[in-house]
Amino acid sequence: xxxxxxxxxxVLVSLSLALALALTGCAAPATPATPRTLVISAIPDxxxxxxxxxxxxxxVYLQNKLGVPVxxxxxxxxTASVTAFKAGDLDMVWYGGLTGVQTRLQVxxxxxxxxxxxxxxxxxxxxxxxxxxxxxxxxxxxxxxxxGHTFTFGSESSTSGRLMPQYFLxxxxxxxxxxxxxxxxxxxxxxxxxxxxxxxxxxxxMNEQVWTSRLEAGEVDTSKVIVLWTTPAYHDYHxxxxxxxxxxxxxxxxxxxxxAFLELDPGLPEHQEILDLFGAQKFIPTDNGNYANIEAIxxxxxxxx
Length: 305
Known about the structure:
Elements: H1 2-27, E1 38-42, H2 48-66, E2 70-72, H3 78-86, E3 92-95, H4 97-106, E4 111-116, E5 124-129, E6 151-153, H5 159-171, E7 184-185, H6 189-197, E8 203-207, H7 208-216, E9 225-230, E10 238-241, H8 245-248, H9 253-262, H10 269-278, E11 283-285, H11 292-300
Parallel strand pairs: 1-2, 1-3, 6-7, 6-8
Antiparallel strand pairs: 3-10, 4-10, 4-11, 5-8, 5-9
């Protein structure tokens, strides 16, 4: 009987220990889930290698500031960017004025939140092959001398490489049919520059900031290409945030993103690198209302229905 009693006690103790261990295991804190990756992108308006360096550097900065993984995802063209944003595959995208408006019209609740200091007074430049014989001019009326020459825009959906140049051409009394042959669409500002420099087209329209940065980098042969005219100012590039971001993270997350950009300090080398890559001194807040004129012009020339 004593043996049975002892065995019973051993069994009870063993069961108690097993139960305690099981309960302890259940009470252990769960391993925190990996935060959702914030996916950023940009319209492919420049050389892909330059874009990869720019947004790769920015992704590292944002990841450190926001405390969540950040990934830069390149897109093949402007339309692909709008499609991916609409589908929710991209959380935040660097758009030109026109593409930004087109995107926001398709995604209810999307917001323009930030722009560079240079984007509230942005310009396009008309450049010409030196072999064309064209000379620089200072006002809109000078555009008339482009009649009878070959001409290329950048991307069909570019604000600074197509929308605003076409608008100013119309204001200057120049129709696309006034050019020799059909107007071209190079696909990017860098390609426009190279095509005009090579003499493939007499004239092209491109982003002033890209022109300036390539000039400063010594990437322009000034014996072969010149600036004819700089357009009046308009609002252009900006960051657009998808409305689902507040659901995926928090209501305050958009403010954290804004703060990360507004805190970029040119006095800090690691911040200066990002600002230099963007061709800016700082970022400033913006909103959808700043692009009402872009929307009106887009509708006038048939780029927005």
